[in-house]
User: Fold these one by one.
Assistant:
Number 1:
Amino acid sequence: FTGPQRALYDLVLASQQAAVEATRPGKRFIDPHDATVRVLAQGMLDLGLLNRNDVGHLDDVIEKRHYFRHYMHRTGHWLGLDVHDCGSYVEPTEVGRLSERRDPLSGELIKDRPSRILRPGMVLTIEPGLYVSPAPDVPKEFWNIGIRIEDDAVVTEDGCELITRGVPVDGDEIEALMRG
């Protein structure tokens, strides 16, 4: 890794770890995404990918979706017999109930049915990323770097198990593998 590549890689890995921690029975499908966004947005501020003077503090970045510039997709999707399985993202037991929230992709305030509750045996992807395009207000050393870490997770009785780990994901381990 170059220094900037490593900084972004470590940030994406930390965001994935936050998503993994949020993937457990009783949590909602949206919770891993929210955990990812919080870590990525703070990292974008810390690394200067977003200018605090322009975008404000962490809660402003999340509420106004300033992070979307470098992270424009959801953190995961259901996984089943098809790559993008078509299971509902809405909790079936709460069909008549509405909650108010910001849509993570459009940013609009919407009234929607609550996100699906995670239960043991459910399988989903956890795949955060960062994508930095050249722009005058972005430090040049980060230009044209894209990082995405993808794993598949099975919700267990007390958390989740990543079922796609067979390669190093820690930055030091990756660099050692590349050297050797």
Note: The mean pLDDT is 90.
Number 2:
Amino acid sequence: MPPVPSTAPAEARVKLKANTDMAKFGYRPMAMKLSEASEFLDERIDEFVDIIQKHHQLEYSAFGNPAAMSPTQILAVGRIASDTGEGRMNAASMVLETSRRMGAGLRVPLRMEKGGYDFFPGKVVALRGNNPSGEYFSVTEVLAVPSLQPPATAPTSIDVHNERLQSDDGTETRPLNIIIGAGPYTTDSDLSFDSLHELCSQAAETKADLLILSGPFIDIEHPRVASGDFSLPAETKIDPSSATLTDVFRVLISQPLSRLAQTLPSITIILVPSVRDAVSKHVSWPQDRLARKELGLPKQATCVTNPMTVSCNDFMTAISSQDVLFEMQRQRVVSGLNSDALASLARNLLTQRHYFPVFPPLPRDEKALTVGASLDVAYMKLGEILTVSPDLLVLPSVLTPFVKVVDGVLVVNPGQASKKRAAGTYARLIVGPRELTEDEREKDEDVDHQLFNRARCDIVRI
């Protein structure tokens, strides 16, 4: 890690630009119509037909209905599902669910003739095979789904962003210092929020430029919050009989962040909500942002949606607090592949072009939690990864914290800041400037960001 600067920057060095239309997340939750949910699921399959056709340069006539009996080899595009409503999906229970356009919405059992596949419920796949008996679709090949192109920026804009990394006297280049944390931020035994205080202390001590925090903040699954058996510090002078969860957030979350902002005015703070946040008025995913002013957060804080894609200077960051890695890992059916499991999970998300490609999600009882994925399927299109892949993908999960480069994307699971009985982990990311070559300057064309080549990320135990 580079040495900590002796002085903090005079002004914020991070410029944020939303790449997500956050206004669309203000939809009315718990009002889902089955017809709208079905339409999204159907359209998703049809969109992948177009993607596969273009990438592999296929004639449309090559595609067919896998549920129709035919000895002829066809290409079938559909969604992986299980033929049983109970238990985990396995190779024997896998079916392919078609869209109305491609197969009248029918399901057909799959028989995989070869290994080399990585499936989970909800994954949209392209399969080559036939259905000679009408009873099952015999698969001989799984076609690759192309990755999205990396984002790119004009060299002149890169220079502007690099200028922000110069010291105030212009004599040295200071890399960006980013801290990434994910809730919960306190153990089950109390509401001390020691992990949040430690993150704020680290941000202040290391002169952090950006602090990314994802929920849950006030966790509705916390035993004390669920029972209501807790009290606020005496110095808050809030009448317990009239206190609200907003008051609790103001005292336990906003006050530490406000003290950090006073100590380090140049810091930028991003807050991503969770469906487990007690103060969130939006109870489903995709999820609207938290109310910054109502919660008493400092002006340095920016509340964003869940999921969110935002440009931080010259690199694109994507964040979703929904634990999709755990959902995929629990329901995967893999054969003939020996690749890195965690990297494969992230690659699945990127190639599926969605922050939560699992459908249906795990039932609540299997996770032993009061809150499940809380999907509003009719609005799941808001969870799509649009046009380009991110440079930095933040996916908080209960799985082992990790940092991996997957298809040119820096994928980070910072872990939980606090576990049930002990402190957890967070991620610290150092990002240097994007150095431009003379050739790139002469061509004057947009250049990719190459974040993975100029960044160092460490998982730090609290």
Note: The longest strand covers residues 70-82.
